[in-house]
Amino acid sequence: MISYFKKYPLSICIIAVILYLSFFKPPQTSLSEIKNIDKIVHICMYGGLTMVLWTEHLLHHKSIIKRHLIIGGIICPILMSGLIEIGQSALTDNRSGDWMDLIANITGIILGSVFSYYVVRPYLRKMKK
């Protein structure tokens, strides 16, 4: 368990920030008036998390361990996202679970994975040489 904190410190911090942001009462701003701005935020949060998970994995392993990335970099963030949406619906008065948020999160995870595989991975390989 401690090795996860050593290998994935930034990922763990981002997960904590996502958990906090998912349950606090957001202030009303002029950005709230932009249609579907929250979906863009969801895509960015989960895409960013996924890219950081992949980057930290690639930095600590000589080659990709597909099973680790599929489970830890794709399935776990999707499950976390779904549980957060359920938690928002069941545990808060000021937030609601939203299927479209879950779809936006999954979109971010997919985009982050594709970007990491085709851009981050080759870049890190080049840097290691």
Please provide a written account of the structure.
It is a single chain. This protein is mainly alpha-helical and 129 residues long. It is built from five helices and no strands. Helix 3 packs parallel to helix 5 (99-128). The model has no long low-confidence stretch (mean pLDDT 91).
Percent of residues in beta strands: under 5%
Taking all Cα atoms into account, the compactness measure Rg is 16 Å
Amino- and carboxy-terminal Cα gap? 30 Å
Structural class: mainly alpha
Q: Which spans have pLDDT < 50 for at least 5 consecutive residues?
A: none
Q: Give the number of helices.
A: 5
What is the succession of H and E elements? Answer: HHHHH
- Name the helicity range: over 70%
Major beta sheet, specifics?
none
Q: Mean pLDDT, as a whole number?
A: 91
Q: What is the tally of beta strands?
A: 0
Net shape:
elongated
What descriptors fit this protein?
elongated, 129 residues, 5 helices, mainly alpha
Topology:
Blueprint: H1 2-7, H2 9-23, H3 37-60, H4 66-91, H5 99-128
Helix pairs in contact: 2-3, 3-4, 3-5, 4-5
Task: Briefly summarize what is shown.
78% of the residues lie in helices and 0% in strands.
